[in-house]
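Subject: mismatched residue count in predicted assembly?

I count 1544 residues in my input, but I want to confirm that the predicted structure covers every chain. Input:
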Amino acid sequence: MAIAPSQEQLAKLRIEVASWAYGNSGTRFRVFGTPGTPRDPFEKIADAAQVHAATGLAPTVAIHIPWDRVDDYDALRRHAEDLGVAVGTVNSNTFQEEDYKFGSLTHPDARVRRKAVDHHLECIDIMRATGVRDLKIWLADGTNYPGQDSIRARQDRLAEGLAAIYAALDADQRLLLEYKFFEPAFYHTDVPDWGTSFAHTVALGEQAKVVLDTGHHAPGTNIEFIVAQLLRLGKLGAFDLNSRFYADDDLIVGLADPFQLFRIMHELVAGGGYGDPDVQLVLDQCHNIEAKIPGQIRSVLNVQEAVAKVLSIDTEALAAAQRDCDVLLANDILMDAYSTDVRPMLAELRAARGLPEDPMRHFLASGYLERIADERVGGAQASWGA
Amino acid sequence: MAIAPSQEQLAKLRIEVASWAYGNSGTRFRVFGTPGTPRDPFEKIADAAQVHAATGLAPTVAIHIPWDRVDDYDALRRHAEDLGVAVGTVNSNTFQEEDYKFGSLTHPDARVRRKAVDHHLECIDIMRATGVRDLKIWLADGTNYPGQDSIRARQDRLAEGLAAIYAALDADQRLLLEYKFFEPAFYHTDVPDWGTSFAHTVALGEQAKVVLDTGHHAPGTNIEFIVAQLLRLGKLGAFDLNSRFYADDDLIVGLADPFQLFRIMHELVAGGGYGDPDVQLVLDQCHNIEAKIPGQIRSVLNVQEAVAKVLSIDTEALAAAQRDCDVLLANDILMDAYSTDVRPMLAELRAARGLPEDPMRHFLASGYLERIADERVGGAQASWGA
Amino acid sequence: MAIAPSQEQLAKLRIEVASWAYGNSGTRFRVFGTPGTPRDPFEKIADAAQVHAATGLAPTVAIHIPWDRVDDYDALRRHAEDLGVAVGTVNSNTFQEEDYKFGSLTHPDARVRRKAVDHHLECIDIMRATGVRDLKIWLADGTNYPGQDSIRARQDRLAEGLAAIYAALDADQRLLLEYKFFEPAFYHTDVPDWGTSFAHTVALGEQAKVVLDTGHHAPGTNIEFIVAQLLRLGKLGAFDLNSRFYADDDLIVGLADPFQLFRIMHELVAGGGYGDPDVQLVLDQCHNIEAKIPGQIRSVLNVQEAVAKVLSIDTEALAAAQRDCDVLLANDILMDAYSTDVRPMLAELRAARGLPEDPMRHFLASGYLERIADERVGGAQASWGA
Amino acid sequence: MAIAPSQEQLAKLRIEVASWAYGNSGTRFRVFGTPGTPRDPFEKIADAAQVHAATGLAPTVAIHIPWDRVDDYDALRRHAEDLGVAVGTVNSNTFQEEDYKFGSLTHPDARVRRKAVDHHLECIDIMRATGVRDLKIWLADGTNYPGQDSIRARQDRLAEGLAAIYAALDADQRLLLEYKFFEPAFYHTDVPDWGTSFAHTVALGEQAKVVLDTGHHAPGTNIEFIVAQLLRLGKLGAFDLNSRFYADDDLIVGLADPFQLFRIMHELVAGGGYGDPDVQLVLDQCHNIEAKIPGQIRSVLNVQEAVAKVLSIDTEALAAAQRDCDVLLANDILMDAYSTDVRPMLAELRAARGLPEDPMRHFLASGYLERIADERVGGAQASWGA
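Triage response: the counts match. Full output below for your records.
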């Protein structure tokens, strides 16, 4: 029953990768290193460019400030362009200084709040320097104990801080507000759910949108519903894609629940978000124990396969079965597309576009991993802490 | 460190009880009956009036249509008044007819949607006949299987249906939209979270508010955050109070996690919702295995104790500790109030207001339970199915 | 990388269906009926036989006592055989009489415990009369409120009751003890987890085994781990298969998380349980809103597809990658099998075995559904309550 | 209805504290430091001794190897004794070396498994040198991706490794095996639940017991049931106490769900584990943002209050109500004890035993915190990484 999607449709897919995925990451128990890990933003972008070269799917690289601070942002921009990619979303970071122990934009102390706002103004400057449109804000703000601070007062401070940042945006820039259920705060977080992101971005204005990270929900949450709802409300700005079995595990997208990824992409397509540059797909993952660049290649291919399956849905037949309340037939039409092996179709698409038919094999055979392991000696490997 | 709240503050508490709590309820596995269970709305209200007589806390009784349909609503209203209570919120029900198998306001078929809207218009008529302000809408609408229906199309139908109902309200009436995580729909529900209720009620207008049922969230959800947020946004219309360990267990409020109830009441008080007639406290429980009227008395007392503890918080000291980021002190101030045994203080309050000091003992000694067991023979006991 | 499994391997699959799946079921909110629903055990078995006729996968039908009580069990047995199937596991039921309101084998009152034991002795008699090996025990026992009863005392009573039942088994019969996280009990259940089932069945002896129902776990539980562990410990007696998004949703197996079903089947195969008659695969589902017989056909096909994918895993390559700690390669080998479209292979298998290549289409075209809708008028449709 | 417990009963409480609680801890996002944080095991024990001095409740201090490795264990032992405490449980650590990236006792490579066993043999030597009875094993072992390694093979390796360690124990030593739902492994952990710990410790023998960490369960798990079950099975060796709202949050015990702590202590007392030296109560917490020594004082007091409430339960009346299936009365008897303010009674107990009536105030007034902040300059503050 599945239909064959057009190459044109398939070719609309763009996935942003994140610079920090190429550095080391881990848990509170241990951060394991790997030979060849980048030591600076330039090397991170070089690695990211490999993913795009192999797959044709990842033309932009998100950066994180201060992790990716450089002296010359124009040089960084040109470096990326020379490698066939571009600098993407600028991510702020207000969780790694002593001042932020009890919050940033929501902190009880006005001095700290001011500092956090200023950090975002710096990010907006960097956006201008790198030609970037989107500022993504994820806050570690929250409390660990009931009573520690006023939940309500913190919301008001948050609104105030966001307004100050929003006011500094250029007309063609956007503020994207991410929500997260928990971690690192363990009693309450100041932006815990899509409703909170939504309410704040509505209050800010048209240039403010919501970021949906697929790992940032309570157990059992129907994420595709939120996708459909935010698209309907015109407020879905970007995805942070990854997989989770338990919490914010930040595993490779599509490897914990590939059917969920398919359903999410189904709502993205159905709601008109697919191929829309205003709805960004971004990988936000941690390759704690697996090879990083191959992990990223696997990730973008997983998203591509999910999208290809979604584009194979016979939407007319589906709509008819839904109209008839034929539960099993409607579900069958969906599952039929999901059960289809789209890999041969995607290999053809790659061949037609001059890309390696098997990107993973191509990359592993390229010798790149061996080369960086040899060359990148000395210096400090990039990680969350630096 | 706890302070003594004034009797005036304590006396502001009003809790609505629900007629269906006095009928039989159960699980899909079994509905157990009890001698003396009411057989009609008049007997339900008689039982509910006992709760108010014993506690002085429960002056209104929510009704459910069609379960509480009567020929003469004015008679029902007078019956309640004669017993010292009043008819409260009118709850609609669009989940017990064959037509609603696949939804009501969200159904693919326009005929069923129209029927569901008409049912709500009938409810509004009953509100007029009984002098009731609030229409509470909880929908069982949703799907069990991915693909069964379009999540997005159902949202649009929902918006349309709600708008039609809202348009029929008198200027002093309100529409309250309840959300629920899951059950009876097992893949998606059409109003799963506060964000969805919020977005719809904002679109409807000032007379539309959100209902927060404490049992309708994903595991681990910080409910008091939602309370604080909805109060801040001016959209919290009512609570459905109950307890849960797992899902929508509908147990007696305060018996699964009394500290959570305290935290919820803390945000209610802190956000100005306590004592505000526009933020209703309602019990929505199922006494599957315990005695019903005593279960209701226990419930309103649990809420009263939680509120009394909250009113014992030294809010000035708390604010100071929060300002100082003194995590342990701030938490200690909260916990100190929580650890206080407020029962003697509440017994005094009752004595001062001419109420029995020990409402449960008083009621059990009254012989009412024995009397209704003797008198209510024959007829069909009220339950969800009738 | 996936390999082609042999038809002999594929043909080992046997799935037991349950008689109650053909009757009506629902939630506490509503049980919807369908034309043609069976009115007695004979009609249920007739429907079940259709599933086997269409798929060749479902040769046995579990029964539930008292729902499937008949005067002449030999007649029931012959009826099944005439239709090409056999009576399967006997399921006891101690949750639908007033006496069981507070428990059955764990009840504080010795009289009720004795009654519950006697019910199981009746089930064992029925096993003898129908030539059935397995007695499956799932208990609704538990409490709704802390303190309601002694958790510890109930365990001791449970052990005593199970021992009495176990003692009555013939040497070739088995007692299968199912566990469940919650529902209908909402504070604690007396057999909440595999550890409890395991401890009791170890205490009972070799003829006692554990039943794993895929919907009976806490959110996030790694079910395939339990499968691997119970097989290792020699204590996995049977599966109750179904799907869930939230709680014990009892949806069609493989439609909520098909990758989880694949992983579960992978551990079944890896642990030697596949094709072993001592590890039964049973469907335990509720077709609340979808057509029942087609729902069952879809279910057994979903299991078959999952098994076929598992049998396509290149286990030698997988073991080598695991030995090398090559995380991505090992995962890729697994995912490659999962991504394979096994439906053509299974159509061939069916053709080779004289079965319809497309069982669903074949059944829907047979006119059976229309026939039973016409013929089965009058009488009471079977459901959980009868 | 609550009864007054005897001082003798109250005085039986012993809580072990953990050395690592006095060092810095945090999340993967950030570890915040505090002035005065210990730099070596001797300073950690000095801090721990303050908790015992203030409360009389914490006579032993668990250590962690290699974090607490010293040249002279006898000196460490005497240092503790001089300060009025003793060295407690020895905790192994096989998660912070590169070798353990893919597991320790379960690693595919026999060399790594041997190394992990050897580490435990070293721990047993340290137990002998410090006069410690208990070896506590928590493994970070697990996998992040399906297929990464064989779940079954890892169980077999685990059994083998544990057997080798167990064989090295002296006759009066114990092996305590802790289980954990997830983290740092995100797909499966090798000891995820009490059933797995139980099965392994049964296979090992009488000197092997289970450790229950209150933060290591799936959402919604009824922990007190597991306490009751393990006590019944004679296999509960120790608790790791802490609080959690979401995952393994490691917050101060009793501050997330004080009623749950009460219920856990209720089963401990009811099952005979209270006051039994074979059932250890240990704090395992992370004071990421709050003061550490005060955080520990608060913790042991919270446990003491919970125990005092439990000892206030009128157990005879409770048993009678349970026998009568009087759900509300039985629950009321429990809740009555829970609602009692036991703090005055505990202040009296302290006075009678020559302890400060208000331990927190006493400690804060002592100047200890200021002194260590002044004195402990230079050196590296202890944390998980060192």
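Chain A has 14 helices and twelve strands. Marking this ticket as 'not a bug'.
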